[in-house]
Amino acid sequence: MDELLRINNLKTHFFTKKGVVPAVDGVSISVPQSSVIGVVGESGCGKSMTAMSIMQLVQKPGRIIDGSIELEGEDLLKYSGDNMRNIRGNKISMIFQEPMTALNPVYTVGRQVTEAIRIHHHDIDKEEAKKMALDIFNAVGIPEPDRRFNSYPHQLSGGLRQRVMIGMAMVCNPRLMIADEPTTALDVTIEAQILFLMKKLQEERGTSILLITHNLGVVAEICDYVYVMYAGKVMEQANTFELFKNTSHQYTEGLMKSIPKITAEKERLYNIKGVVPNLMKLPKGCRFCPRCEKAMPRCFMEEPPLYKVKTVVENAGEHYARCFLCESSEVMNDD
Amino acid sequence: MMTKQIGDTLIRTVDLVKEFEISGGDFFGRNKPRVHATSNVNIQINKGETYALVGESGCGKSTLGRLMLKLIEPTSGHVEFEGININELPSEEMREIRKKMQIIFQDPYASLNPRMNVYDIIAEPLVTHHVCKTKDETKERVKELMERVGIRPEFINRYPHQFSGGQRQRIGIARALALQPQLIICDEPVSALDVSIQSQILNLLHDLQEEFNLTYLFISHDLSVVRYISDRVCVMFLGKVCEIGNTEDIFGNPLHPYTKFLIDAVPKPDPFLRKENKQLLHGDIPSPVNPPTGCRFHTRCPYAKDICSEIEPEMKNVDNKQVACHLI
Predict the structure, then answer these.
(1) Does one domain contain both A59 and A128?
(2) Which of B206, B267, B282 minimises the CB distance to A195?
(3) Residue of B nearest to A183 (CA)
(4) Domain that includes residue A256, residue range
(5) Residues 6+ apart with CB under 8 A from A329
(6) What distance in Å separates residue B86's CA from the closest CA in chain A?
(7) Sign of the torsion angle spanned by Cα atoms A220, A317, A29, A244
(8) Which domains, from first to last, does chain B contain?
(9) A220 interface with B at CB cutoff 8 Å
């Protein structure tokens, strides 16, 4: 499969008065054409900052200090100002968790969607933009698009607002849509609708989706390939089926055992002891070792690279885990 | 795992109705629109059990929790705690009953006063209800509670902002435990927490229940959590009870179409269970200001018949469960 986006050894650090916070610390992610790639992790693991870095929306005191982000072979980090503005919303678009804060409350949703069109395509007049907006409203399943076109965000339900956001993100036919916790604020029956819609749009239009979430259920439901992040680094990456069948990193394992399963018997829930480390005082060696049950003396001394794991699921592609327990001959060249 | 003793009814609601007036209406302030938050809810919770209230936003689950604590007064109907109608009690007697019921809130950032330190927060109920005689005794009790919920007692003078979300939720739990209540209403206690912290809090709640023989009313929209922690489940939709039953029966053999869709909609953390043609519920949750006539679910229900839009279904006892649906 052709590669659409390639993030190589990305480092986004925050230079605060108290010290340097390595929010994203050498992350490499590859998004193939027409695929759904998941990034999972708990709060503070750097998943949202990775997304903001791709869009170059990192605010001060944060800065991308190293690495490259290539979209179809072009390094986005060389772009600035106007060039990047042509990419944002046009080739790469983004949807956020809380659709109420992401939409402007004083403009109708129709106006906000047509604005996105007319910023990127100056030759499209108002009438045509309105037609495109109504088409996209239809495509994202908004009932009565004519009436909704003139609604203000507060007049819509949470699910409809998220549909408007997705419509706005899709209206310029982007190559990549970044979805940062798109269903976290929604009710379950609405969440299922939105996930189904995203998958449908991805299949019909060939747009790739980079889905950022803390919910392994959402990942299992729609992602093709998954990156598990912890404290600014990718800990494990694999095909979704492979990741669940052949979980290789202790952190991923812990996450999976912590979630109560709707399908399973009642037993005491597993918990990962301790808390996420302070990024300013990261432990030496493996970042996860203070919380890991299988930590060895070596884990406290040196940081493991990403080791290639032998896959158990057929056609799973490559599976890597940042853990000495997976040590074998092949190492991914990541730093 | 379960070594709980489940006893007689601790609290029950009788035809509980709560309507909130909202702005609007005519020039004289008449005919204001009303939000129908709960309509004729009859539930009973037994001593020692974990009773879960589930449903999507606007179904009235939090309103019901607040009504049971008498934090708000019902429009009609009443709540009985140990057989006493608490809506007719004079306020002094109500104070005694309030000691027996406590609440844990969803957002541990909003539910702790940032200007109070841990000691003040946990001691507040003890001071208000004159439980401890001396200050030293209060301090001892606070330390004991902190230890019980897994916060180091040396942190007694720290402020909420110095703790993580999970630790704050533990402080909220210690405050709820301070008066040795019988009933704790847990209003979405883990939905603001990360999964690894969520499991710690769920295990803590489970241990405390066994130790102090607590009764929980567990309000949640997360069905996986509910399946894990509860003994009985009540599914609500738009202010009405759809189905009540034992957790195993509800999840193993849901009868009400809404319960089925709700369980089916939860993203399962197992890609091998992916369904290609998952049946989805269409449309949005109707407005509680103008709830649909008849069965409130009929506008979204794929099996709805004519009768569903005309007549409100009664609660029926079927297979060990109570269900409100014409089709069963």
Answers:
(1) yes
(2) B267
(3) B267
(4) 233-332
(5) none
(6) 33
(7) positive
(8) 9-22+33-253 (3.40.50.300)
(9) yes
Q: Which phi and psi (to 5°) does residue B244 adopt?
A: -130, 140
Q: How close, in Å, is residue B89 to chain A by CA atoms?
A: 37
pTM: 0.89
On whether both A195 and A304 belong to a single domain, the answer is no
The predicted structure's pLDDT at residue A333? 60
Residue A207 to residue B9: CA distance in whole angstroms: 56
Between chains, do B164 and A275 touch, taking CB under 8 Å as contact? Answer: yes
For residue A334, pLDDT over 70 is answered with no
Q: Cβ contacts (< 8 Å) between A254 and chain B: which residues?
A: 196
CATH number of A23's domain: 3.40.50.300
Determine contact: A260 vs chain B, CB below 8 A: yes
What's the Cα-to-Cα distance from A20 to each of A24, A25, A65, A179, B53, rounded to whole Å? 11, 11, 12, 27, 45
pLDDT tens digit string along A149-197? Answer: 999 999 988 888 999 999 999 998 899 999 999 988 888 888 999 999 9
Counted domains in chain A: 2
Cβ(A182)–Cβ(A163) below 8 Å: no
Confidence of residue A55 (pLDDT cuts 50, 70, 90): very high
End position of a domain, from candidates A206, A230, A254: A230
Same-domain check for residues A215 and A285 = no
Same domain, A42 and A132: yes
Q: Name the residue type at position A214.
A: H
Across the interface, whether the CB atoms of A217 and B278 are under 8 A apart is answered no
Window 130-169 of B, Cβ < 8 Å to A = 164, 166
